[in-house]
Amino acid sequence: MSDTVKIYIDDKAYDVPAGMNLVDAAKMAGNDIPVFCYHPKMEPVGMCRMCLVEMGSIQKDRASGEVLLDDKGNPQIRWFPKLQTACTTNVSDGLVIRTNTPQVDQARENVVEFLLTSHPLDCPICDKGGECPLQNLTMEHGPGSSRMVYSDKLKLDKHVPLGDLIFLDEERCIQCARCIRFQDEIAGDDVLAFHERGRSLQIITNSDPGFDSYFSGNTADICPVGALTTADFRFGARPWELTEVPSICPHDAAGSNISLSMRLDRDHGGRAIIKRVMPRQNENVNEIWISDKTRFGHHFTRDEHSRLLCPLVRRGGNFNETEWKTALEYAANELQLAGGSVAAIAGSGMSNEDLWELRQLVTGLGGERLGAWPPTHAGADLVAQVGVGQGTNLGDLGKGDAVLIVASDLEEEVPIWRLRIKQAHDRGALVVVMNGRPTRMDDFASTVIHYDYSKAAGAFDLLQKEHGDTARQLTGAKNLVVIAGAEGVDLAGSRALMQAAANFLIESGHVGKPNNGLMATFPGANGMGQYYLGFTPEATQDIIANPPKVLFIAQADLLFDDPAAVSWLKQVETIIQLTLFAEEPVPGVTAALPIQSFAERDGSFVNGERRVQRFYTAQGPIGQALPAWQVLNRLGVQLGLGRSKLSASILMNEIAQSIPAFAGITYKALAHVEPQFPLVGGDDVYYGGTAYRNKGGLGVQIPAAADNGGAVTKGKVEKPAAIKASGGQLLVVPATRLYNRERVFRSSELVHPRVPDAYVAMNAADARKLGIENGDMVSISAGGSTLKVRAHVNGAAPQGAVILPRHLSDTPAPLAITAGEVSKA
Amino acid sequence: MSIHDKKYAERIAAQFAKYPTKRSAVMPLLYIAQEEYGWISPEAIQEVAELCNMDSTQVKSIAGFYTMYSEKPKGKYWLQVCTDLPCALRGADEFYEELKAYLEVEDGGTSRDGLFTVEHVMCLAACDKAPMLQCNFHFMENLDMDKMKAFIEEKRAEAKKHEE
Predict the structure, then answer these.
(1) Which of A180, A185, A206 would you mutate first to test chain B, the one with the most B CBs within 10 A?
(2) S-S: A31 plus which of A26, A683, A703, B53, CB 3.0-4.6 Å?
(3) What is the ipTM of this complex?
(4) CATH, range B77-163
(5) Minimal Cα–Cα distance from B64 to chain A, Å?
């Protein structure tokens, strides 16, 4: 938007970007035009009429283009005979509006009065009360007293569950269609609509399950009244009682910026708990949206029943609760006896600071192997090389640009990326999806390429050899982003795939620039942090092959992720586990040490776009839990390996000094904010909804090696042998489901109805061969485990392979694709 | 029973052929479904949604918006009587009361034998031929109760014969 035009608002001139929406332009000029149906992220519809203004244009001589003047020498303005809706107007040169005339005041008052004719005025019991656009605009523009007879108001159903997560209050709805338009335009799940018309108009959903979308919570944020409320926050607290703490979503690689709304709670012993999770604006990361897992997956932070409350150590045959001092002395003793045979496996939910202290401790003791968990995705080093350039914003992708998604079910793995790429597709970007099976992303793709799972690692060969046109469209695009997952490949295959992706980008010059480069759907919040701090899946493989004497397992649920873990863990003499959860301790573990969740401490994660983002302490600890870095630091002090450290910010300073990627990064730098557009989170909740303004920092993106003109070279793709099924076997392809039974998600009971029962998807032809019918229980033996799950015979799986979602049953699915036996149970 | 039945295949294909996208054929397909089921049943909505590749919520929304789709089960004969002013001046309102009394139903109700659903509607653009109604979207004009009774009994007899 380089061109600006001059417009006049209330007789003052402003230069604003040409073609901008008038409501947005006025907002930038400091004039808040009230709206209900308009939202800066969506197309205007002009339904509510709240934004009526007097509008005119300065008259110019058609021949000469000169401004015509009246008798007094002022420009002639040609006014529209009636008020016009600002939201359906784009600014043009010489546009004149008046927003403070009696006529406009009257119109606003009338619109509010009209909306209130059938509004219940139950603000005292309404969740939205206190942050309600209708309430605020009524106070500002409303008539003050009602001319309506209260008993004549429309009485409608106030408790309509649209699904398990969102409730509709039919009386409160003012029918602005923001929720419907969000689901259609932004989320791409058009499962809401109007039903009937006139006075009978209502919001409905007919999907099964109801309101079937991973983004449903956002509709409650943008609802300008209390019509849509979330099952989580409904009747939970009043907005003015809440203290907002900036945080980062701990669930996936997007690193959505969130705000934790904290309040002291009677049901939790008077402690501060998370009452709701809200989006915090970061236009480069999640804009003002979050997925429902981010929003409703926080309950583990408060769940005293599932969390480990104090250290446990094994003495003889007993596993006893103990004090920190005893536990640390005991662990230190074991570590000293290891004689350097020490290694660590760290989960992707550990913060950079935790990983740093773990690394210091292990290397200080003479250990070398730092494993990343889960060991499913390789190629983080390539993301560091040719990852998306600094300043990348998926929201900028549009016509002429391209996105390639390969080996990933993006909606299930990183839903916010799926939402943003859907919009890039709408703006005209070429979206190509390559996978072994159909996924939801196909709905938003220009081209879908299905490959045989046995050739998944060679997907790029297939692209270039058999889909030359598509490959040329991709390489010829103005900007190209490749998002790679690891579905259908093992670790070696993942490396080959990532290397091929990197080569593809380097060859076509799509590296080292904003909106160009590689992204990967690493599981957990800190997959890239693991890499930068030296934790790799290759080291994990090495640890599995040659177990050390003493092994740290930090925030990783090995037994739930990997069927082979039970057997190889037996070879480890001493296991020291850092864990959030009480039920998790690995059999034979020597010490289980309770650590704090992301809500109880501060720290930082690196997201899939290499953005280092900071989260803040929101609540007190559960039991005696400590931040993982502190546990590790104390252990180090006990062993004489360094000094006691007081805060996470000091650790970040150490990281910045030792690890080049973090050079210059401090907590202060991470907390830096700049104004973002659209301006949300002010008192004018009617404009952007209740997403919060970013006050905790926009984060700092680590430059990729290719950024700033850095030279990068192609690497050799070492393609592993194809994984083939023979002799009646089928390929068992583990896949990710967003809603599952992982420990961190298990306390979020309200989402349980949406977690599918354990199942396997298989092709009709394979099922027929094996005598399996839809709904039969089947037994799957693969990768050292046997699972009994229900068969879904449908088109979700290609012939010769079954899709086995991870984390739906207590028996783990294999870590990576493998051949296996499937039979009727 | 389903609009996937062969007997509709040709008509459905003909509708799809008229439009650039399948979605555009949703309204004609809803009419076919209503013909099949007698009303827009939940199954009908699912079937049309699948055929048009739309979310069923959107199909339900369309069925709800237009009054010529009925989302409630109807009798075999759906009698919509115009009672607007010009018709009323020609006695349509009295005619409508008598019709309801004869069938022993309330406005919008279905007769006990399940054959007739009656309701009053807005102008059907045949004021000069009032009292008039439309029966399954076909006009019946210049009516009186004698004609109506004859029609009703004829249909009842037909239905009875059909049963035997």
Answers:
(1) A206
(2) A26
(3) 0.89
(4) 3.40.30.10
(5) 4
